[in-house]
Design brief:
Length: 138
C-alpha cells in the first residue's frame, strides 16, 4: 500500500468512526422554535439545519494549541451527514457538511460559527479527531 492510499484509508476510517452518544440536538418538531431563537440571537446570520451529526473535538498540539488559546477560538466543529435545509442555498437537502469552528453553543442544539447557525436535529455523537484530518474535509 502506498503512502497516499494509507493516508486516504486513515482519513476514511477517521471520518466514518463512531463517537460516544452526545446528549444534544432538538427534535424535528422543535425546529421552527429554535429557528426563532437563532433569529432572536442574530437575524442577519443564516441557518443550516442538519441531522446525523457528529461533534468533533479537534486534537491540536503544540503551537497550534497555544494559538487557539490566545485567539479564544474553540477547538470544535460539526460534521453532519445530512443537510435538511440551508437558508443561503449553499447545500442541497441530503448533502453533508463540515462546519467552521464553534463560536458559541446555544440551547443544547444551536452550533454557532462566525457566519452561520447550525441547528442540530436528532441524536448525535461526539469524539476527538486529528485536526489535520478534519481540515482535509474542507
Amino acid at each position: 500500500m502506498t503512502f497516499e492510499s494509507k493516508s486516504l484509508a486513515r482519513l476514511i476510517h477517521e471520518v466514518n468512526a463512531t463517537g460516544n452518544e452526545f446528549k444534544a440536538g432538538c427534535e424535528v418538531e422543535q425546529v421552527d422554535h429554535y429557528i426563532g431563537i437563532c433569529n432572536s440571537i442574530n437575524s442577519d446570520k443564516y441557518i443550516c439545519t442538519v441531522k446525523h451529526w457528529q461533534w468533533w473535538d479537534l486534537d491540536i498540539e503544540g503551537d497550534q494549541k497555544e494559538l487557539f488559546g490566545k485567539t479564544g477560538q474553540s477547538q470544535c466543529v460539526i460534521k453532519a451527514d445530512y443537510v435538511i435545509d440551508d437558508q443561503l442555498g449553499r447545500f442541497n437537502e441530503g448533502d453533508w457538511v463540515r462546519t467552521s469552528l464553534l463560536q458559541t453553543f446555544h440551547e443544547n442544539c444551536i452550533f454557532e460559527t462566525a457566519n452561520t447557525f447550525y441547528l442540530l436535529v436528532g441524536k448525535g455523537t461526539r469524539r476527538k479527531i486529528d485536526a489535520g484530518l478534519a481540515g482535509a474535509l474542507f
